[in-house]
Amino acid sequence: MLLVILPFFFFQLCTVVKYTPDQIRNMEESVRIRSDNEPMALVKLVNGLKQEFSRDESVFELPRAVKLRMIDEILRRLQSSDVKGNVSAQREAVESWRREKLEEAKQLSIGRQGINSTILQEEARMLVRVLESDWAALSEEIGLWIPTEIIHKEHGDKPKGVEDEDLDEDVLPGRPPPPECHAELHTDYDGVAIRWGLTHHRDSAADCCQACIEQAKRAKPGQMKCNIWVYCPAETGCHSPDKYEHKYQECWLKYAEKPKLNFKDRYSEKYRNAHPAAPLVVPWVSGVVSL
């Protein structure tokens, strides 16, 4: 009789391990915690990327000969459609070709006979997929690019009767007023004068606006607070119907419960007939600030 001596660890492997109920609950709890802490959002993102990559790969599955044939057909369609220089017409011509080719591929993929086709039946299913859902990727792969159409519109934002030379002073000297100044070119607002511009000059429209804001902050209870600033940016001075000669850099600080315009954009023909020295365009720049 052959006596076989087994090593001690063999008996250890054959030993049945028994766990207590508490140990089993702890293991189950550990499994549950690991499951709850899985990055599900990351898993979904990775799966989504895999699907995207698989769709992109379908474009490159097309044989090179098929891609070259498609390029040739698209070029011939564009040439025959006489759409040179018309971006919208070019896009429509290419889209028309895509729809026709997609329908042709669908018919072939279901085994429809009697179609005079330039593609083989085994290529039809791939074409259906790329023409229907991967057209953008296929267009990029074959080098098809049509620029976005740019429509130029002339904005009629100049006052009626004002020529280009009348707007030469549209660029304000000095630093530009910040947005809270609500600067309006060729504008003169009415209001009660808190600070007369005849003796109150500032280097720029922005500085004039800032003076208005600071006056409103420093005003004592019961005093009027500046909410309108009017500035003369013209080196030759600014016209006004009063008796004073208004000079460059005058800064008027005013108040009005409901601000109203004196003049906007250009002086009317009737006004200029009554004031022959008045220019065509209102030279002042003004703004209404919030208190």
UniProtKB/TrEMBL annotation:
Superkingdom per UniProt: Eukaryota
Entry annotated with the keyword RNA-binding: no
Protein name as it appears in the record: Apple domain-containing protein
Keywords, sorted A to Z: Signal
Coiled-coil residues: none
Signal peptide: 1-16
Matches recorded under InterPro entries: Pan_app
Source organism of the structure: Citrus sinensis (Sweet orange)
Lineage, highest ranks first: Eukaryota, Viridiplantae, Streptophyta, Embryophyta, Tracheophyta
Keyword check for RNA-binding: no
Domain Apple: 187-254
A Pfam family assignment: PAN_4
